[in-house]
């Protein structure tokens, strides 16, 4: 006696060995993925402002740069604050399951760089920010409109570097 194999319109049915076969319709819809880094950069900005970061700008470098899509540049009033801002961003994004790929300058208090792949965060002491002039380097990059609270703005001519 010959046993007849089950078939479907597309051919033989696959063996399941006692397990229910999942189809694409059964799977939960995937959460939308942020593919260019803007959401992460905006979250980093929010975390930086929680640590009283100053003068933030967000540059869209997608058309100008091959290693990231956005660069967030901001300042701290002191070397300790620069470190605290960088630590706050790193810890907050880690809780959001966004992991830093690499970092430079941590613990120097002059410039902390956090590389997240699609976006890079630069936290500067103001004198270092003026020296490296990333805003000038990326002068052709459009600025992403962001809401900057009044307490994150520095009045023109005010000195705000302090060593702590």
How would you portray this structure in words?
This protein has a domain at 38-149: Beta Polymerase, domain 2, CATH 3.30.460. It is built from four helices and seven strands; from the N terminus they run E-E-H-E-E-H-E-E-E-H-H. The chain has helices at residues 38-50, 79-95, 126-132, 134-137, and strands spanning 7-8, 11-12, 54-60, 70-76, 102-104, 111-115, 119-125. The strands form two sheets. Strands 3-4-7-6-5 form a five-stranded mixed β-sheet. Strands 1-2 form a two-stranded antiparallel ribbon. The longest helix has 17 residues, at 79-95. The radius of gyration is 24 Å and the shape is globular. 27% of the residues are buried. Mean pLDDT is 80; it is low at 7-11 and 16-34.
